[in-house]
Amino acid sequence: MEEQKDQNILPDEYEKVTDVQIAKVKTCMEDLLKVPCEEMEGGGIPSCQELFQSSKDE
Fold first, then answer.
1. pLDDT value for 6
2. 8-state DSSP, 12
3. For the segment 3-49, what is each residue's pLDDT rounded down to a tens digit?
4. CB 51 within 8 A of CB 24
5. In this structure, which long-range contacts are made by residues 47-53, counting pairs with CB atoms below 8 Å and at least 24 apart in sequence?
6. Maximum Cα–Cα distance for the chain, whole Å?
7. Distance CA 52, CA 38 (A)
């Protein structure tokens, strides 16, 4: 029983991550490093906003 518990820690959703989503995350991370803090405070970074919007829609 112990072994099965370990395998079910992650939700089913976790396995549905696509290469497209991973690419969006990478773009977001790269943009976070490039964009000055002042611009982020003004509403965020488009590539990151897109990331969160697309995950809500599905």
1. 55
2. G
3. 555 556 666 666 677 888 888 889 888 988 888 877 777 667 787 88
4. yes
5. 50/24, 51/21, 51/24, 51/25
6. 52
7. 21
- DSSP secondary structure, 25-51, as one string: HHHHHHHHHHS-HHHHHTT--HHHHHH
- Identify which of 28, 22, 30 has the alpha carbon closest to the alpha carbon of residue 45: 28
pTM of the model: 0.50
Buried b / exposed e over 25-36, threshold 16 CB at 10 Å, is: eebbeebeeeee
